[in-house]
Design a protein that fits this description.
Largest sheet: 5 strands, parallel
Number of domains: 1
Number of helices: 8
Structural class: alpha/beta
CATH architecture: Alpha-Beta Barrel
Helix content: 25-40%
Low-confidence stretches: none
Shape: globular
Order of helices and strands: EHEHEHEEEHHEHEHEHEE
Distance between the termini: 9 Å
Number of strands: 11
CATH topology: TIM Barrel
Length: 288
């Protein structure tokens, strides 16, 4: 019964065609498939779709939906970034006019951009290990705690914003800011200040009635853990926050990567159900 809803075919920084992902999803035994290429943003960015590519993406996914109607459920979505008004003035209006106006089925809402680079452009925290190190040094004067707290403060704002979009949404890779923290190079996750920042974000997510994603892509990286990690998932379960399993696949072969491990992790922290997407939005199914 599981579906895969966080997937990036080759319209942004991913690879493979819509049909490649459908073939891979069916071969993996999935019951449904969603597409969530990175939505256009109103500034230069080399890993999101351009407006022109977005238009082609929408047309291609809708053509596939029609071709597979009644045989295999397909959903048209995007990964939609929270663009803080102080960082990207007019960003939300651009998203409504260009992205949301096409009538998406759902969105993976996420946070990548925190602060600006030396050229004044929004700076993505997950661009590369080298870029993150520069951001800590050049923007935050070596104070990684301030960067991380800014990140989770923006996640709090994201939660409120996501609830206004008018479509089913899930908050993607909640603790993505830890991507380059292999071996706790930058900060210990057990630090009280870190846990307090996460707790504030979880409170906002619960208040917005927003599901979170267990994103398996971290299992395919040196980090070796999902987004979010197990202690955050345990707290989310205690707070009654529902969860969706997502692969964050940038290759067709990863469309269901880590799903068995994800189910085991969720069961170990007390979850008994996950969400899947239907015509009326998210619905709950029992974990296997």
């Amino acid at each position: 019964m599981l579906g895969s809803y966080h997937n990036h075919p080759g319209y942004c920084d991913g690879s493979g065609s819509v049909e490649d992902y459908i073939d891979a999803a069916r071969a993996a035994g999935l019951a449904a498939l969603g597409f969530s290429s990175h939505a256009p943003v109103p500034f230069p960015c080399d890993w999101t779709m351009t407006v022109e590519r977005f238009e082609r993406y929408v047309a291609d996914v809708r053509a596939a939906q029609e071709a597979w109607r009644g045989r295999f459920p397909l959903w048209l979505g995007v990964e939609l970034d929270y663009l803080d008004p102080a960082l990207v003035p007019g960003g939300a209006e651009f998203q409504r006019r260009v992205v949301l106006a096409v009538g998406l089925d759902y969105a993976v809402t996420s946070l990548h951009f925190v602060g600006r680079d030396p050229d004044g452009r929004p700076w993505a925290v997950d661009e590369s290990a080298e870029s993150f190190a520069r951001q800590v040094k050049e923007v935050y004067g070596g104070d990684v705690r301030r960067l991380v707290e800014d990140y989770y403060g923006l996640v709090e704002r994201l939660a409120g914003w996501a609830g206004t979009l008018g479509i089913p949404v899930v908050l993607g890779h909640l603790d993505k800011v830890k991507q380059w923290n292999v071996g706790e190079r930058y900060f210990p996750e057990r630090a009280p200040w870190y846990r307090e920042a996460v707790e504030r974000a979880l409170d906002a997510i619960r208040g917005a009635r927003l599901p979170i994603e267990l994103n398996t892509s971290g299992l395919r990286r040196a980090l070796g853990t999902p987004y979010p990690g197990e202690w955050i998932l345990r707290r989310a379960r205690e707070l009654g926050i529902p969860v969706v399993i997502g692969a964050d696949a940038h290759r067709p072969e990863d469309v269901a990567s880590g799903f068995a491990e994800a189910q085991a992790i969720l069961a170990s922290v007390g979850y008994r159900a996950v969400l899947v997407l239907g015509a009326d939005g998210w619905r709950s199914i029992a974990l296997r």
